[in-house]
TrEMBL record, chain A:
Keywords recorded for this protein, A-Z: ATP-binding, Nucleotide-binding, Transport
Gene Ontology molecular function terms on file: ATP binding
Descriptive protein name: ABC transporter ATP-binding protein
Family classification: Belongs to the ABC transporter superfamily.
Organism this protein belongs to: Marinobacter daepoensis
Pfam families referenced in this protein's UniProt entry, alphabetically: ABC_tran
Span of domain ABC transporter: 12-241
Gene3D superfamilies: P-loop containing nucleotide triphosphate hydrolases
PROSITE patterns per record: ABC_TRANSPORTER_1, ABC_TRANSPORTER_2
PANTHER family recorded: ABC TRANSPORTER ATP-BINDING PROTEIN MG467-RELATED, LIPOPROTEIN-RELEASING SYSTEM ATP-BINDING PROTEIN LOLD
């Protein structure tokens, strides 16, 4: 899958992407000109220390934020300068998110958290199938407060993949978990990527995770400082940190 | 947070304002009346006689317990005012040739008191002068005791006896068609053929002496001069009416503020709890640094007190202002020389203490729990909220709830206490508006019932002396008269066991077409051939039921004492009375067939002719017009109620806003993360707003009907509390009132909803995602 990725048209294409935040009297340059292409079906791990700009990049790719300058294009859609309404539409139809703190709705059960997405999606899978895929078929009617952190994160993954998104964006998905639980989450992500062919971006500061990727991009100080391709994607079960 | 705290301050302000406005009016009116009574020597006891020789005055003055006394001649007149065709009647009172009477002295607005002179002079009451724009030196003609005289206005005055001015036989003020005139004693006595005599005594009783005792002595002294019985100040019409009004104000000073303060306490509790939850870490750090529980508690108490003081300040300011405005409005009804604007500083102190106490009580629970938190625990964020599947979802499994709807019901059921109190707060806001408005419908119904169902005559003429009913034939033959009916009325005292009640006994023709008595369902009560009908309020006061016997002491004519059986109970809204069959009454009074009231229906186009001929007919004392009375009443009533309703609606709106805005903002604060998560998942702004606003909508859907019911209940309480001899207001809550109450609350909800919607728009999605639950 990874080998022919380059021949395809990129899903995402960014050119000269910058983002500046005004924090009090200081300007923080989170991104200083990022040129990047992401291809259909590939699993990309973005590495970087905290403050390297990786979350900012992910937020811009996910339509949660807009760049200060430069261009970001998803297929035919120009995301830089898109309206709030267009960005909402874009997130709803194409993007699946997984966050460090899961962001589940505490008042909804696991199944209902997934349904919250499938009922507004254009071509969703059955919520039960999505939960089955992350190994939570038996915990579907539990509320988040009744689930462990790893289970909650797997519900978040089920929720993200249930809409059959074109792209799955994961921001430190294992950041709040111990390594054994984190690996279960990565297994679920890898399986989702493999079985649904969704372009998957995982950002992390944990270099061990990079071995499960097709491609590894390193960010530092708001620019891409390195990129390499793994010859073989390592099974996340064999990872450790 | 600032908006929320201000909303709470406003609710406190609402309570303070309504309390203060009622207190200001109560204190001001009481003080004004008290001072007026004192400065103008208002009488303690009143008595009317048919005619008593002047020598008797000395005898009455020397009765034990009599401190000051004034004898007077009173009478009635029919007036003709330039360019005013309708009948105008007047009550005439004499003033001594020397000027001010010793009792019931007059307040001179303009001019002077009438002096003895050839051309009769008159001082007129201010309300009448205003209604007809009469000035000093104006003249008008009057028929006094059948003789036409031209009266010249020399003064415009007010009297403590006529603070509330009502025409005889009427129930509502009518300043155009009824006035009070003061003439010099010599002039009036001459006109009334009362030279060397008097027909009215007013007197003050020595402080500490029994008023009842003085009344008894007077009754003994004056019985053979046709006394209708002496009565004390509390039975004096104007005084009684004003006292009822003051009682209402006192009730208002308690009921409404209690509701406001309760709601404020609840809001403070919710908001401060929320605030402290968000500041757990700060509390922890402060405690770790060695701040004591007391210092932490005091820190948050200061904020609560600041809210209370802000509310107090706004409330005091607006309460005093509204009190002043409403006081001006009262001056339309009550003829005081001027309104003393008074507020007892004690009340202000008490109100301050209450507001501070309310605020501290409201915040107490959450402040205490913040202060008691061990630092290590405070440092940790609060655990994740627990939810469960709600009963509605279990009971209605066939309804496919959308997930946002599930979020709404689960959020509401997670904190049932808070939800209940929010619903209750909205209900209270609704109820306040209902209570503020129902009175208008109720009074309208009361008056319409009285005049459409009970009194169908266009005109009522009161005769100076009873006449044979054959005189009615002449009246019926006049041009413009459609139908005539005669009645007999006589002042009586009803006695049952130790209870006594002075009222009017009315004899009605058995086949009455114009005026009836009705029961609770507004159905006509047929007149029994013998026996009495009593108004329910009167029967209750006397403690009698149908079938009981009552002693009836007739206070005029041959003054017979009768024992009559109560044959039935009637239900009227206005006034109280005793009724019986006209023929039976005539037999009982042993006077032969007599009537002294004439009820008429007129041909509308010819009514002016009828008025004129009645004016010129000797023996007719006064005439009342139904339509005129209604028109002027509703005009004044509508104006007063509009003001009152606006104030109450505003207050209801403030409560509703306070409750709803705080609910919405707290929801937004507590669920900002959920809502942002949904936005990230692709929910649009409006879809997410639906969750917050849907929650408000459910609170409204539950709160408004509950508020209607509560309002209805409160209205019932208010009505029961305000039942008086003069009127008993029915509880009438119209669809319009309910709609108005709901609109006020919904409008407040829309405003708070819009602010929340706007805030939600500005929610920083990325920032929310970064924070841990």
């Amino acid at each position: 899958m990874a080998s022919d990725a380059h021949q395809k048209t990129p899903v995402f294409q960014t050119t000269g992407l910058t983002k500046t935040y005004h924090q009090g009297e200081v300007d923080v340059h989170a991104l200083r000109g990022v040129d990047l292409a992401l291809y259909p079906g590939e699993l990309v791990v973005m590495l970087g220390a905290s403050g390297s700009g990786k979350s900012t990049l992910l937020n811009i790719l996910g339509g949660l934020d807009i760049p200060s300058s430069g261009q970001v294009r998803y297929q035919d859609i120009e995301l830089s300068g898109a309206s709030d309404r267009d960005l909402t539409r874009y997130r709803r139809d194409y993007v699946g998110f997984v966050f460090q703190f899961y962001n589940l709705i505490p008042s909804l059960t696991a199944r209902e958290n997934v349904i919250a997405v499938t009922e507004i999606a254009r071509d969703p899978m059955a919520p039960e199938d999505a939960l089955d895929m992350v190994g939570l078929a038996s915990r579907m009617d539990h509320f988040p407060a009744q689930l462990s952190g790893g289970e909650q994160q797997r519900v978040a993954i089920a929720r993200a993949i249930s809409k059959r998104p074109q792209v799955l964006l994961c921001d430190e998905p294992t950041g709040a978990l111990d390594s054994a639980t984190g690996i279960l989450v990565l297994v679920a992500l890898e399986r989702a990527n493999r079985e649904t062919g969704t372009t998957t971006v995982i950002i992390t500061h944990n270099a061990s995770i990079a071995r499960m990727a097709d491609r590894v991009i390193t960010l530092s100080d708001g620019v891409i400082s390195g990129e390499h391709r793994n010859a073989v994607r390592q099974n996340p079960r064999t990872l450790s940190w | 947070m600032r908006g929320q705290l201000l909303a709470i301050a406003l609710v406190i302000a609402g309570g303070v304002a309504v309390c203060l406005l009622s207190l200001v009016n109560y204190t001001s009116l009481s003080a004004t009346r008290e001072q007026y009574y004192q400065e103008h020597q208002f009488a303690d006891v009143f008595v009317s006689v048919k005619r008593a020789p002047r020598q008797l005055v000395q005898q009455a003055a020397s009765l034990p317990g009599v401190a000051r006394l004034a004898s007077r001649v009173e009478g009635t007149a029919k007036l003709t005012l330039p360019d005013y065709p309708e009948p105008v009647s007047a009550h005439l009172v004499s003033v001594p040739p020397t000027g001010q009477p010793r009792v019931n002295q007059l307040f001179l607005r303009e001019g002077r008191l009438p002096a003895p002179s050839h051309a009769p002079e008159v001082s007129i009451i201010g309300s009448f002068a205003d209604a007809h724009q009469l000035r000093l030196d104006d003249t008008f003609s009057a028929i006094i005791n059948g003789r036409k005289q031209t009266l010249k206005v020399v003064g415009i005055v007010e009297s403590p006896e006529f603070i509330y001015v009502i025409p005889p036989g009427g129930m509502l003020p009518d300043y155009q068609r009824f006035g009070v005139l003061w003439l010099n004693q010599e002039t009036l006595a001459a006109a009334m053929d009362m030279r060397g005599a008097f027909n009215s005594l007013v007197l003050q009783v020595t402080p500490g002496h029994s008023i009842e005792d003085v009344i008894d002595q007077l009754d003994r002294l004056l019985a053979r001069y046709g006394s209708t019985g002496a009565f004390a100040r509390h039975d004096q019409f104007s005084h009684q009416f004003l006292s009822d009004e003051l009682e209402q104000l006192k009730a208002m000073a308690v009921i409404f503020p209690a509701i406001f303060m309760g709601v404020a306490m609840f809001l403070l509790n919710v908001v401060i709890t929320r605030l402290i939850n968000t500041q757990r870490e700060i509390v922890a750090i402060l405690k770790a640094f060695g701040y004591s529980n007391w210092q932490i508690g005091w820190h948050y108490s200061q904020m609560v007190l600041a809210i209370a003081l802000t509310g107090l300040a706004i409330g005091c300011f607006s309460g005093l202002w509204l009190g002043h405005e409403l006081g001006e409005l009262y001056m339309d009804y009550y003829r005081f020389p001027s309104l003393l604007f008074r507020i007892d500083p004690q009340w202000l102190v008490l109100l301050t203490l209450i507001s501070l106490a309310v605020a501290l009580l409201g915040g107490w629970r959450s402040i205490r729990s913040a202060a008691a938190l061990p630092p290590a625990e405070a440092m940790r964020p609060e655990g994740p909220a627990r939810y469960h599947i709600t009963p509605p979802e279990q009971l209605l499994p066939w309804i496919r709830f959308r997930q946002p709807s599930r979020m709404i019901v689960r959020q509401l059921s997670r904190k049932p206490g808070r939800t209940t109190l929010s619903v209750f707060g909205i209900a209270m806001a609704t109820a306040i508006v209902v209570v503020g408005n129902f009175q208008f419908s109720s009074v309208s119904l009361m008056v319409h019932t009285q005049f459409a169902r009970v009194q169908k005559q266009d005109l009522t003429a009161t005769l100076t002396d009873p006449v044979n009913p054959s005189a009615l034939f002449n009246m019926a033959r006049q041009n413009g008269v459609r139908y005539v009916e005669g009645r007999r009325s006589a002042p009586v005292e009803l006695v049952h066991e130790h209870r006594r009640w002075r009222t009017v006994l009315t004899g009605m023709p058995p086949d009455a077409h114009l005026q009836f008595v009705v029961d609770r369902n507004l159905e006509n009560v047929s007149l029994p051939p013998a026996g009495l009908l009593l108004t329910d309020f009167l029967a209750e006061s006397l403690g009698v039921r149908t079938g009981d016997s009552v002693q009836v002491q007739v206070l005029e004519g041959k003054r017979p004492v009768l024992t009559l059986v109560v044959a039935g109970i009637t239900s009227e809204f206005l006034g109280v009375g005793a009724y019986m069959n006209l023929n039976a009454m005539n037999r009982a009074l042993r006077e032969g067939p007599r009537v002294n009231q004439v009820l008429m229906n007129l041909v509308p186009e010819q009514s002016n002719t009828v008025y004129q001929s009645l004016r010129d007919t000797p023996g007719i004392m006064a005439t009342n017009l139904r339509q005129a009375m209604l028109d002027s009443f509703f005009e004044t009533l509508a104006r007063t109620f509009l003001t009152y309703t606006s104030i109450i609606s505003l207050l209801g709106g403030i409560i509703a806003f306070g409750v709803i805005y705080n609910t919405a903002r707290i929801s937004l604060a507590e669920r900002g993360r959920d809502l942002a998560s949904l936005r990230v998942l692709g929910y649009s702004h409006n879809e997410v707003a639906h969750i917050l606003l849907g929650e408000l909508a459910i609170l409204l859907l539950l709160g408004i009907p509950l508020g209607w019911a509560t309002g209805f209940g409160l209205a019932g309480l208010v009505v029961t509390a305000l039942q008086t001899e003069l009127y008993r207001v029915p509880v009438v809550v119209t669809g319009k009132t309910l709609a108005l109450a709901a609109s006020v609350v919904v409008l407040s909800a829309l405003i708070s909803g819009f602010i929340t919607w706007w805030r939600l728009r500005r929610l920083d999605l990325v920032a929310v995602l970064k924070t841990r639950e």
